[in-house]
Design goal:
Helix content of chain A: 40-55%
Radius of gyration of chain A: 30 Å
Oligomer: heterodimer
Distance between the termini of chain B: 60 Å
Helix content of chain B: 25-40%
Number of helices of chain A: 29
Number of domains of chain B: 1
Strand content of chain A: under 5%
CATH architecture of chain B: 3-Layer(aba) Sandwich
Strand order of the largest sheet of chain B: 9-8-7-10-6-1-4-5-11
Largest sheet of chain B: 9 strands, mixed
Number of strands of chain B: 11
Largest interface: A-B, 29 and 20 residues
Strand order of the largest sheet of chain A: 2-1-3-4
Shape of chain B: globular
CATH class of chain B: Alpha Beta
Strand content of chain B: 25-35%
Number of domains of chain A: 3
Order of helices and strands of chain B: EEEHEHEHEHEEEEHEH
Distance between the termini of chain A: 88 Å
Chain lengths: 673, 255
């Protein structure tokens, strides 16, 4: 045995350690409450699961966000300080027993001594930053009850004090050892070494057993309490991250309603449609709720929360967790989940923009969970928001939420010199142009569709539209929880498209694009779908479309959520803008790309309004105004309507223009002729 | 309490109406059929009364085969059963005969309340509920804007009169009420309701209307031709104002 590594650990310690481990394991039952959830099969790919765990879990990839610099530095210090100390303790566990001592460093190995002390200092510094944030900076989005919360022990601040106490204890124990053993490399343990010089050797000899036992006992108490304190996230969040299917992250799951309806054994009166209680969620959704660490980043970026609407995405997740614990470990009688913990207006305030999911460091999927509760309200209770009810009924009757006649789907082309061919006439084309309900019926969006016709014709594209055969894709219906209507529409569109041959679908509305591209495959519809900005960029870069730089306008681009965050298309619209205006005329809003703020219309909010709070579209429009740009460019039917409305509401019709990228490109072709 | 709701299928007002070459019927292709607007409010009122005071809601329609859809929707929303009088020879039939047909087929049910929409959006007779009341010799009220049960066999209703006047009336059962649109907020047909509706009974009665003597006959159905046109006045505010003054003074001659 290498004497450098050996130090005696009293037998009694192992008894305490065993008790501590047992108590921790007992408290881990919090994690196993998720068993009451529904099955949720997911592909298990060892490598991708390992990647999740290492990069997003241990590596804390998403914790580091440019929108939360202070908290990112703070968590870096605490997180890596803690990981270092766990590493040091693990190494010590082996070397103290004389295992692997030829390979492992000892406490007096210079580099190991140095990083151990640095880890301790990082942990203390990070905890102080966190305390300053909790008690002096006090961001009002954070829970304000610092010594309770999470239904757990010590709260948010208590655990910080505990960690500081633990680290100081570690340093004192180290200092006493250094003072007594006085190894030649002692100065590498830079903190412990400095402390060891503060008092006499005889004092250290007297203090050492107290220091050692004090630190040992606090460490064991800490371990035993992990599942009961905020530290639980090191277990629950890493489990959640590891089991996340990142390919399908944030996507809404289909319910297979036709199967439920056709199954003669369905217990119609009692079958759960959507989620009204914790047991209606999948175990993964419940694991989401258990792993929430209440960092409140979701709520800080949520357009509804920021506008003072009743929704806070974090509250939704923690309400589910609280209800879960009260139904399982605490066995309390509590209010209903919906109507008690969570109000209906909270659920209806969500625009499904995905900002919460983009920021969540532990990969929680808020939106599908909110949709599941909306499904319960609509499918089980028949209670969509009053205003949205009408648009759902109109979609059901006429195939579009405005309620115009199916026969008028091509009426917008009456204003155009170009008459788009239909697939019914051509049967086979290269590109199916998906006009969408907005492009077909909304006067503002008809102009975008007309611009697209001009672009398609000018670039000599072999294209066609579905015309009267096109029907709503069901985006709003699905996000309003009306899965039955969505499924009906999806199947209808897939059936229509199966009659014809085309290579690619080009959609003007990112909502249509997202639905056909990412949601129709569940119903057997697999298509190559691109947004019109992707097509236009390709046409310009291959020289099929020639544009002029003709604009003196300064332009700011508003990223539509379903183009950007949900489908990661950020560069194409910007590349197009660079071709039609001088690069210095393009000004970014402070919140752009991944951190773009929603226009307020997503998630079916186009069709109803939560009156409480400010108007989301006006908030976003004001952000565009702050850039000083003269045009807000966008690339989404709903965004155009919302920005246009905000422009009028704020009285900026003479100072600002709202244009779709397609309109801007179409104008720049004109000037080249 | 046994409530009957008379419902009718009508073309959606946004549908493109085309007249068949016989000039007497509507081309039903490409027409979206919906439940008549005020009937939808009548149905909701019946469901609300049932939820509050108990009883049974029966929906009844007289129409061609395709009217099945509105019966299903009504059952999905919460009606208990349906009576579907199928018009096997769908051509024009006057409202008095419609009232007779419906009365013949529902009188054995001995309903306490018969609710119907104030008027149908297609033919707009505004008479059905009242004709049936006369035929069944029940009390009746039209243009009902709210209802309130007084006791087991009396209902108090608020009726709309002209120029902002209202009238409150107490009626004894059996009674027939025609409901004004806007009286409540009709509910949404939930999937659970749609699935449950499958097991609810619908009594189908096939009826040949040639057995009824027509009281009125239909001469011709046509789409009204446009006689008025909207004129847009463009220009600066001053120009617009002077143009309007000119029109008011010289064309309409009100100044």
């Amino acid at each position: 045995m290498n004497p450098e590594h050996s130090h005696n650990v009293p037998q009694l310690f192992y008894i305490f350690a065993l008790i501590s481990m047992f108590y921790m394991a007992y408290n881990l039952r919090r994690l196993f409450t998720i068993q009451i959830g529904k099955p949720d099969s997911r592909p298990f790919n060892f490598l991708s699961q390992l990647y999740n765990s290492l990069s997003f879990g241990v590596g804390q990839k998403k914790v580091y966000s440019k929108r939360f610099t202070y908290a990112s530095i703070m968590h870096f210090l605490i997180g890596w300080g803690f990981i270092e100390l766990v590493f040091a303790t693990t190494v010590d566990f082996f070397t103290a027993r004389g295992w692997f001592t030829d390979y492992l460093p000892g406490f007096d190995t210079p580099w190991f001594a140095f990083i151990n002390d640095t880890g301790g200092i990082m942990l203390i510094a990070g905890c102080f930053m966190a305390l300053i944030r909790r008690h002096y900076i006090k961001p009002n989005i954070l829970p304000q009850n610092n010594f309770s919360g999470r239904g757990t022990f010590l709260g948010d601040s208590g655990i910080l004090f505990f960690l500081i106490f633990l680290s100081i204890g570690g340093f004192l124990t180290e200092a006493s050892r250094l003072a007594i053993e006085n190894p030649i490399t002692a100065h590498w343990s830079w903190v412990g070494y400095a402390i060891s010089k503060t008092t006499s050797l005889s004092n250290w000899i007297y203090l050492k057993p107290y220091m050692w036992w004090g630190h040992a006992i606090t460490s064991l108490i800490f371990i035993s309490l992990i599942p009961m304190t905020k530290m639980f996230h090191v277990i629950a969040a890493i489990a959640n991250i590891t089991l996340t299917n990142r390919k399908k992250h944030g996507l809404i799951k289909s319910m297979n309603i036709s199967e439920i309806m056709e199954n003669p054994d369905s217990d119609i009166e009692n079958i759960s449609l959507g989620a009204s209680n914790v047991k209606d969620f999948s175990w993964k959704q419940l694991l989401d709720s258990v792993s929430c660490t209440e960092c409140a980043r979701c709520s800080s970026v949520c357009p509804a929360t920021r506008a003072g609407k009743p929704l806070s995405p974090m509250k939704i997740i923690t309400d589910i967790r609280d209800k879960l614990y009260s139904e399982t470990i605490n066995n309390n009688k509590t209010d209903d989940l919906i109507g008690g913990f969570i109000s209906e207006t909270e659920l209806w305030s969500c625009t499904t923009c995905g900002a919460c999911m983009e920021e969540c460091p532990v990969l929680i999927e808020h939106v599908p969970t909110i949709i599941d509760m909306r499904r319960h309200l609509v499918l089980s209770e028949g209670k969509p928001p009053t205003q949205a009810k009408e648009s759902l009924e109109k979609t059901m009757q006429n195939g579009n939420p405005w309620g115009f006649s199916k026969e008028d789907r091509l009426k917008w082309t009456e204003q155009s010199d170009f008459k788009p061919p239909t697939l019914e006439e051509k049967n086979e084309v290269d590109i199916l142009y998906w006009v969408g309900c907005a492009g077909s019926y909304d006067p503002r969006n008809q102009n975008i569709a007309l611009s697209m016709l001009k672009i398609l014709e000018t670039a000599d594209i072999d294209y066609a539209v579905l015309g009267k055969e096109e029907t709503c894709t069901g985006d709003s219906a699905r996000r309003l929880g009306e899965e039955y209507l969505f499924e009906t529409l999806a199947k209808q569109n897939i059936e229509t498209m199966s009659k014809y041959k085309f290579n690619k679908i080009v959609a003007s509305c990112p909502h249509c694009m997202h639905t056909i591209l990412n949601e129709y495959p569940d119903f057997g519809g697999n298509y190559e779908v691109v947004h019109h900005t992707e097509l236009i960029e390709e046409l310009i870069s291959t020289g099929k479309l020639k544009t002029n730089i003709n604009s003196d306008e300064t332009i700011t681009f508003h990223d539509p959520c379903y183009l950007g965050r949900h489908n990661k298309i950020y560069n194409e619209p910007r590349n197009i803008l660079k071709k039609v205006t001088n690069i210095e005329n393009i000004i970014e809003m402070k919140e752009n790309k991944e951190s773009s703020m929603c226009c307020g219309a997503g998630g079916g909010n186009m069709w109803h309004e939560i009156n409480e709070g400010e108007r989301v579209n006006v908030n976003r429009f004001n952000q565009a105004m702050e850039t000083g740009a003269t045009t807000v460019a966008t690339a989404c039917s709903f965004c155009t309507i919302m920005m246009d409305d905000a422009m009028k509401v704020t009285g900026n019709e003479n100072t600002m223009k709202v244009q779709d990228i397609a309109e801007i490109v179409s104008d720049s072709i004109e000037s080249s002729v | 309490m046994k409530i009957c709701v008379l419902i009718k299928q009508v073309p959606d007002k946004d549908s493109k109406i085309r007249i068949n070459s016989d000039s007497k019927t509507i081309d039903s292709t490409n027409i979206t059929n919906i439940i008549n607007e005020s009937d939808n409010y009548a149905l909701e009122e019946a469901l609300l009364l049932k939820e509050k005071h108990g009883g049974e809601v029966v929906v009844c329609t007289f129409g061609n085969e395709s009217s099945n859809g509105i019966i299903k929707t009504a059952l999905a929303k919460g009606a208990d059963r349906g009576i579907f009088i199928i018009n096997t020879k769908p051509h024009y039939i006057d409202i008095l005969n419609v009232a007779k047909i419906i009365t013949d087929n529902i009188k054995s049910e001995k309903f306490d309340i018969i609710l119907s929409g104030l008027q149908s959006d297609d033919s707009g007779n505004c008479q059905l509920g009242l004709l049936i009341a006369e035929m069944l010799n029940t009390s009746h009220a039209s243009l009902v804007m709210s209802t309130e049960m007084i006791d087991d066999s009396t209902i108090k209703v608020k009726q709309e009169l002209e120029s902002g006047w209202f009238q409150w009336t107490e009626l004894n059962f059996p009674t027939s009420l025609t409901i004004q649109s806007g009286i409540n907020t009709p509910r949404y047909a939930a999937l659970r309701g749609i699935m449950m509706a499958k097991n609810k009974p619908v009594e189908k009665i096939e009826l040949d209307i040639s057995g009824y003597t027509p009281f009125l006959s239909l001469e011709k159905l046509y789409i009204p031709s446009k006689s008025k046109e909207t004129q847009f006045i463009n220009g600066a505010p001053e120009e617009i104002a002077s143009t309007i003054v000119n029109i008011l003074a010289n064309e309409i001659k009100v100044l």
